[in-house]
């Protein structure tokens, strides 16, 4: 399975911030199927810190259309968060993106509308993939 180009950067940032990587990728078994939470060039990995567990979906947003990347990221985010709510309800899901994507695209009206309508504001964050900081939506 191919890794997103920022996968190792986000993973390293989490480790530097005191997180222990527990799964790379995080595998979720649903019925007779296995969801690897890794579809193509992105990777989900899990981390644990101070009893808190998270899962991170890393997205690079490198397609010519950031809207297409948003469609894919949102679909994956919704699927993974729903599966996690059943299998590991205490594990929070985060979306790992670059600071430039956060400021250049996620500040626009369309992504903000999608974030609002899907209730992603409450506790769901974006990881800045170059620094170990969490950016709240």
Structural write-up:
The longest helix is centred in the middle third of the chain and has 22 residues, at 66-87. The protein has a six-stranded mixed sheet, sandwiched between helices. A two-stranded antiparallel sheet has the order 2-3. It starts with 6 loop residues before the first helix and ends with a strand. The chain is built from four helices and eight strands, in the order αβββββαβααββ. With 137 residues, the protein is α/β, with parallel strands linked by helices.
Average pLDDT level: 76
Largest sheet: 6 strands, mixed
Question: Low-confidence stretches at least 5 residues in length (pLDDT < 50)?
Answer: 38-43, 129-137
Structural class call reads alpha/beta
Strand percent estimate: 25-35%
Cα radius of gyration in angstroms: 14 Å
Short structural summary:
By secondary structure, the chain is α/β, with parallel strands linked by helices.
Question: Main attributes?
Answer:
two-stranded antiparallel ribbon, 4 helices, 6-stranded mixed beta sheet, alpha/beta
């Amino acid at each position: 399975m191919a890794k997103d180009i920022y996968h190792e950067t986000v993973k390293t940032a989490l480790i530097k911030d005191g997180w222990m990587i527990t799964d790379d990728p995080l595998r979720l078994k649903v019925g007779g199927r296995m969801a690897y939470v890794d579809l193509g060039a992105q990777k989900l990995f899990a981390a644990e810190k101070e009893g808190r567990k998270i899962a991170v979906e890393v997205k690079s947003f490198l397609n010519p259309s950031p809207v297409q990347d948003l469609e894919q990221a949102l679909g994956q985010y919704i699927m993974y968060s729903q599966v996690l709510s059943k299998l590991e309800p205490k594990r929070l899901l985060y979306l790992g993106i670059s600071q430039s994507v956060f400021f250049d695209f996620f500040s626009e009206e369309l992504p903000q509308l999608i974030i609002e309508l899907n209730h992603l504001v409450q506790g769901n964050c974006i990881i800045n993939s170059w620094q170990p900081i969490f950016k709240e939506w």
